[in-house]
């Protein structure tokens, strides 16, 4: 299957090794892609584990799960990577009312002990 992160690669050559813990995402952008794919595949454990320990209290696992299930994830577009730890993206999805939505966010990531984590995001128009 094609990777849900829209890289054009197969899932096994793209985000699957990160999802199953075989390797870790080498850059913030690759982590971002793997987290989008995790929403599409409803992998709430992965989403929670790749959130900084400090930010986890704002992102309970169940919330990741219900947000992942509620929407149909259509497409990820990386808009810009303004620095090594920031990624601007647009996530295209159909919400539970069948409406097309675009989630446009500038996400900040942190690297700790050689692993990347999602820290927080700023919503953009
Ligand atoms: Zn991927």
From TrEMBL:
* Taxonomic path: Bacteria, Pseudomonadati, Bacteroidota, Flavobacteriia, Flavobacteriales
Whose protein is this, by species? Moheibacter stercoris
Q: Which InterPro entries match?
A: NTF2-like_dom_sf, YchJ-like_M
Domain YchJ-like middle NTF2-like, chain residue ranges per copy:
27-119
Task: Provide the protein name.
Answer: SEC-C motif-containing protein
Q: What domain of life does the native source organism fall in?
A: Bacteria
């Amino acid at each position: 299957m094609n990777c849900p992160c829209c890289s054009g690669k197969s899932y096994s050559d793209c985000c699957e090794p990160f999802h199953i813990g075989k390797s870790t995402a080498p850059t913030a952008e690759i982590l971002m892609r793997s987290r989008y794919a995790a929403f599409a595949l409803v992998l709430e454990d992965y989403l929670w584990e790749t959130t900084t320990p400090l930010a986890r209290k704002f992102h309970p696992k169940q919330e990741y799960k219900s947000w992942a299930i509620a929407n149909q994830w259509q497409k990820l577009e990386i808009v810009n990577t303004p620095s090594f730890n920031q990624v601007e993206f647009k996530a295209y999805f159909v919400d539970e009312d069948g409406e097309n939505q675009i989630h446009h966010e500038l996400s900040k990531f942190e690297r700790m002990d050689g692993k990347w984590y999602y820290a927080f995001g700023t919503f953009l128009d």
